[in-house]
Automatic annotation (TrEMBL):
It holds the Pfam family DUF212. This is Uncharacterized protein. The chain crosses the membrane at residues 6-25, 67-84. InterPro entries: DUF212. It comes from Listeria aquatica FSL S10-1188.
Length: 127
């Protein structure tokens, strides 16, 4: 039965716990309850990392550190955690660029509004 598969159950519980704990962490930081975080991707703690860590741990306990199952889980875990770190870093860099674009666009809009002022209209008529 699938519920007797301890590594699988541990991984799923770890995912659920990591997703749930995002809510109280946000509450402590921003004093706001955001239940939607339980269903969001990204952020900390990483449910991906929690799942592979639970998988590795239970396989090490059940089969030992020298088992091929543990070896597969470790390689899988390294790939997942390394990739998650890279994705988070890239997302942060893209967010910085997008924030700069929004700021520049807002400056452009403010400047463009100034071009439509009556005195600007007179200046452009004479050109």
């Amino acid at each position: 039965m699938v519920f007797e598969n301890v590594p699988l159950v541990a991984s799923i519980v770890a995912i659920l716990f990591a997703q749930f704990v995002k809510v109280p962490i946000r509450l402590m930081i921003s004093r706001k309850v955001e239940w939607g975080l339980m269903f969001s991707t990204g952020g900390m703690p990483s449910s991906h990392s929690a799942a592979v860590t639970a998988l590795m741990t239970t396989l090490a306990i059940e089969h030992g550190f020298d088992s091929p199952y543990f070896a597969i889980a470790v390689v899988f875990g390294i790939i997942v955690m390394f990739d998650a770190t890279g994705v988070r870093r890239q997302a942060g860099e893209q967010a910085a660029v997008l924030n700069k674009l929004v700021s520049d666009f807002q400056e452009f809009v403010e400047h463009a509004k100034g071009l439509t002022a009556p005195e600007q209209a007179e200046k452009t008529k004479n050109i």
